[in-house]
Amino acid sequence: METGKDTDKTEEDMHKGLNTYPELTRKLLINRGITSAEAAERFLNPDYERDIHDPFLILSMDKAVDRILRAILAKEHIVIYGDYDCDGIPGSVIMHDFFKKIGYRNFENYIPHRHKEGYGLNIPAVEQFAKDGVTLLITVDCGITDVEEVARAQALGIDVIVTDHHLPQEILPAAYAILNSKQEGDTYPDNMLCGAGVAWKLVTALLRKGSFDVPKGWEKWLLDMAGLSTIADMVPLKNENRVLAHYGLKVLRKSKRPGLLKLLRKMSIEQNHLTEDDIGFMIAPRINAASRMDIPMKAFHLLSTEDEVLAGELSDHLHKINDERKWTVANIMKEIKKMLTHRELRSVIVIGNPKWRVGVLGIVAGNICEEYGRPAFVWGREGEGNIKGSCRSDGSVNVVELMASVRKKLFINVGGHELAGGFSIAHDNIHTLEDELALAYGKVKRANTAPEKLPIDANLSLDEVTWNTYGEIERLAPFGIGNHKPTFLFENIKIENMRHFGKEKNHLGLDFKNSGGRGVSAIGFFMDKDFFPGVSVAEDERITLVATLEKSFFGGRRELRLRIVEIRNV
Length: 570
Description:
Blueprint: H1 2-14, H2 23-31, H3 37-44, H4 48-51, H5 61-73, E1 77-82, H6 88-101, E2 107-110, H7 123-131, E3 134-140, H8 147-155, E4 159-163, E5 177-179, H9 195-209, H10 223-232, H11 239-252, H12 258-266, H13 276-293, H14 297-304, H15 308-340, E6 349-352, H16 361-372, E7 376-380, E8 387-392, H17 399-404, E9 411-416, E10 420-425, H18 427-430, H19 433-444, E11 458-459, H20 467-474, E12 488-494, E13 497-501, E14 507-513, E15 519-524, E16 542-552, E17 559-569
Parallel strand pairs: 1-2, 1-3, 3-4, 4-5, 6-7, 11-12, 15-17
Antiparallel strand pairs: 7-8, 8-10, 9-10, 12-16, 13-14, 14-15, 16-17
Helix pairs in contact: 5-9, 6-9, 6-10, 6-14, 7-8, 9-10, 10-11, 10-13, 12-15, 13-14, 13-15, 14-15
């Protein structure tokens, strides 16, 4: 008994530094492993000067900066080669804006076509650059696995500077310089920056070392793109990423980029109230739709153009093709569910169809992974080329490590993060892919593969659904990987009214009343009353609700409401 008391006392002492914060804030901080006053100050009050690290701490930053400055001085032809997603595209915009700001003209942005060229550098593009007189190529969010392509560029007289954040493989490309804090020997304090974050660090280093007629602090305006990617690419919102996301949102709310403003209006999002949810669920899918369904350069032009007319046209176009993307994914998922009902599920799901559009397979793999609770590899093919696909992990395995653990030459090419990746494979090998991955899975899966319990931060009553409570929660924003949105348990509450809303009536709305008779609403998108099996959801029923708090500005009216996470029986 005494030991228990001592332990409790020790914990209480550990948390004493948080006593100046309200009880709920204190609880939310402790749940995130923040137990000291210093850590709480850094987390709740990010500071640009204090929390942004020196870019020259990144391995080879000096070398990369010197080479770019020499290229500028000699007026060399420079190509910025960015990935085609909502990390590489904003990162490419960062580099574009830098060169434009310093008045440098002999550069161009290049983003490969997802379906015709594939991920990363490709030799035909490199050879064309050489014909065009390019002597310096800077990658953004790609290149770390492109050993042959970089070697070809160097052989043709093109120096390559790789800026990337993906996991390095055993053999690194022989580039002039590599900026990637995941590589061996790099001691940068945060190795979890996204691709645009690395590009932004490069620009800050160039501005510091170069002699440019640029106002001090101008690089802060580029944080709209760095913050956009940091949130969209789902890197952990901790340490420096939290600072980039925090200030990125501030700049996004003030940004004058015509394309961004047009897109926000199209989606009925009030710019000054822009949130990380707006980025994750509204903006990023439209940027990514450009490569999934069309030409990725259109998304780049949307974010970089100063032409109001072009911005409007591109905004309308991306909005339209994103709707097409939703329809395509929905149809593929229907087909997959039919296919999976007739086969036994293994430790890894591998499924595909040559007719499926390769560009949307990452979304499909994510949906399968979430619904079936296991890693998913989904493939398709466009034209007569090799099979291409995307994979997602349920957290039980590193998919890049998994792909590296199968027999050699099974895959033609692989790449990605711990939880998400891409691959290409010959048609003859696709038939044995599930067998190979299932065998490898048993060797590399993590020791603790038990699913994480749904995080509940605190029990609340309906009386506590107030703007004051929301103010405490908001202090911990932005939320994302590594900083989940606070989730609360509301026990034994009575449903006063139930409704379905939306054009297709496919969203669920529940209304409750607090002890004073004030209404409290809860919504669940793409849910109905039968969404939670075994739970009776009807008027006058009592339920236990798991939900987050959110504010809505729909229709120009500010509203505090609950977002349904789970409904349980009392």
